[in-house]
Amino acid sequence: MSPTLQQAFGDNLALLDKVQAHLTRFPNQHALFNEIAHYITNLTSIPSTDGSNKKRKIDGAGTPPTTAMSNLQAAVKKGGNWETLAYYRVPEVSFSIPQRKKFMLELCSEGSSGPKASASSRITETGQGGIRAVNNSTGTPEFGISWRDIDQIICLPVPEKQQRTYNFLVIPTGNDGIYSETTSPLEQIIFTLPETAPKTAAFTDSHAPSDLAHFPPAESDQETYISSTIRYINASLRSHRKHVIIPNEDEFASAIPQPHRKGEKAFHVKAFRGSKDGFLYFLEIGLVFGFKKPLLLFQHHHIDSISFTNVLQRTFNIVITVSRGALESGVEGSEEKMEEFEFSMIDQAEYAEIDAWVKKHRLNDHSMAQQRKAKTSDPINGKDSGAGETEGGAKSDRKRKEDKYQPGELARAAQQADQELRDREDTDDEDDEDFSAGSGGESEGEGSSSEEEDDDYDNYDGYDEEEDEFQAKKVKTGLEHITADEVEAEDMGLLDES
User: Fold this and answer.
1) Dist. CA 484–CA 480, nearest whole Å
2) DSSP label of 195
3) Is pTM, for the whole model, over 0.85?
4) Computed from CA positions of residues 246, 294, 86, 196, in that sequence, does the dihedral angle turn out positive or negative?
5) DSSP state of 372
6) Using an 8 Å Cβ cutoff, are 280 and 268 in contact?
7) Which secondary-structure segment (H or E) carries 340?
8) Mind listing the pLDDT tens digit of every residue in the chain (498 residues)?
9) Which of 43, 106, 252, 436 is most deeply buried (CB count within 10 A of its CB)?
10) Residues 223, 227, 231: CA angle, nearest 5 degrees
11) How far is Cα of residue 448 from the mean position of the Cα atoms in its chain?
12) Are 130 and 144 within 8 A, CB to CB?
């Protein structure tokens, strides 16, 4: 780039980048832009009364040095060095975290450097590169993150949208939403792009990362904002041995069909964390819950166990236990701390797929752990007893109840009433047996035990001496027309006669 252009546009690096990008695409316009730059240089330099030259500010020509310095310093604190030149730009991109606003998305290659600006606005000569959000009106960077500070970048389809759109989740190192390694971690970033042809995207080949050759572009008729953005981000992440994470059916796919896209698999699961609704994504690196601040990323090596709880007819819950040991806390000899994250109201139709994902990655399923068992309640004293004893503990629940449980007054009264009822029933049974013993029915031994019936049957030889004696006494007294039941009811006393 010519010194004339640098002198004319040096106070506005964003505008200088645009000019250079335009000249890269249309090199035959260098002469025209040099004339424009020469005119601006002469116009902004006017003689002063004290004989020295002063630079007059033109409205909209750029940002004052003090403002530019403060913006750049703020950007550096947020993880980026914004003197680098962008090799990929998309204007009017919707960001939702950390700010809900439209910015220009810019990707800067690592190690690239823009033209030297004035001493007041130049931070370093060599840039770090990264992702940044630039104000569409002023051309100044608002926030961003360098490539080396990125832990993961995840591209996820936005659920329940008629038009296909994708959220890009930028997770900084040490800020996965679960815990922070520092008191002031870098902010997470979310921006959204549609899956349409990249008509407004601009690419500058001269500033592209060297690894871009490893990622060939898609066919011209199949190129979209999603595919092109993933390609350029992967080119910058390759040196850090990372890549953009995207969901796939082999890893996990929802069992619930999408009503607005029939035949197309969904990758999200509806869930609640407390009163906050969101979506769970089961990926190759772990589990993500979004898209509200803060994003939660549970990577496999951070998960201690996963449990299925509150399993009902239509829904169930998932509890993810994360352990923070001495190595993570940085304090030698510190105790391991367990933290649980519960996600509720998950549709039962998703259970089989989620369970298969848990088993695939060999995550500990603690659904049947002792502490997960339901508590039992003492109906008399109203006290809850534990689910069980740990190893090396005291006695089991049943043994403890046998040894230590003493019934109260209500319990003793209930037991006494129950015993009285049982005694009454036994008395009634004895009366029925006595009544049946005195009857002269066709079947012998009614009301007796099975053993007595068997004995009577074994000793029966076809002749009943008592029956013959009874009939003889009836004839003797002239009462042969009276039945045995009537005799017993009226207490005739025939059976007692000698």
Assistant:
1) 10
2) S
3) no
4) positive
5) G
6) yes
7) strand 337-347
8) 677 777 777 677 778 778 877 887 777 777 787 778 777 877 765 454 444 444 444 333 444 434 433 444 444 444 444 556 799 999 999 999 999 999 999 999 876 444 433 333 232 334 578 999 999 988 889 999 999 999 999 999 999 888 999 999 999 998 999 877 677 889 999 999 999 999 999 998 878 888 998 998 888 778 999 999 999 999 999 999 999 999 999 999 999 988 888 888 999 999 999 999 999 999 999 999 999 999 999 999 889 999 999 999 999 999 999 986 533 544 445 566 789 999 999 999 999 999 999 999 998 877 666 555 555 445 455 555 444 444 444 444 444 444 444 555 555 666 777 777 777 766 666 655 555 555 554 444 444 455 555 555 455 555 555 666 666 665 555 555 666 566 555 555 544 444
9) 106
10) 115
11) 68
12) yes
Which parts of 173-259 are beta strand (E)? 189-194, 202-203
DSSP 418: H
Instruction: Based on DSSP, count helices (H) and strands (E) in the chain, helices before strands.
Output: 12, 19
Classify the C-alpha dihedral 469-470-472-473 as positive or negative.
Answer: positive
As a whole number of Å, the CA-based R_g of the chain is: 44
SS3 assignment, position 357: helix
- Dist. CA 294–CA 281, nearest whole Å: 15
- Sign, CA dihedral 376-380-383-386, equals negative
Q: Please state, in angstroms and rounded to a whole number, the distance separating the CA atoms of residues 18 and 76.
A: 22
Tokens encoding 57: 């500010």
Q: How big is the chain, counted in residues?
A: 498
- The rounded distance, in Å, linking the Cα atoms of 345 and 322 is 21
Under 8 Å between Cβ of 65 and 11: yes
Query: Cβ neighbours of residue 272 under 8 Å, at least 6 residues apart?
Result: 278, 343, 344, 345
CB contact at 8 A, 355 and 349:
no
Q: Who's near 293: CB < 8 A, 6+ residues apart?
A: 97, 98, 188
Tokens 């909209």 correspond to what residue? 60
Cα torsion 20, 22, 23, 29: sign:
negative
Q: How far apart are CA 389 and CA 213, in angstroms?
A: 61
Cβ pair 457, 481 in contact under 8 A: no
CB 189 within 8 A of CB 143: yes
Please classify residue 84 by burial: count the beta carbons closer than 10 Å to its beta carbon, then call 0-12 exposed, 13-18 middle and 19+ buried: buried
CA separation for the pair 118, 294 (Å, rounded): 38
- Contact between 18 and 134 (Cβ < 8 Å): no
Scanning 405-464, the segments in alpha helix (DSSP H) are 409-437, 450-459
Structure tokens at 372: 């997960």
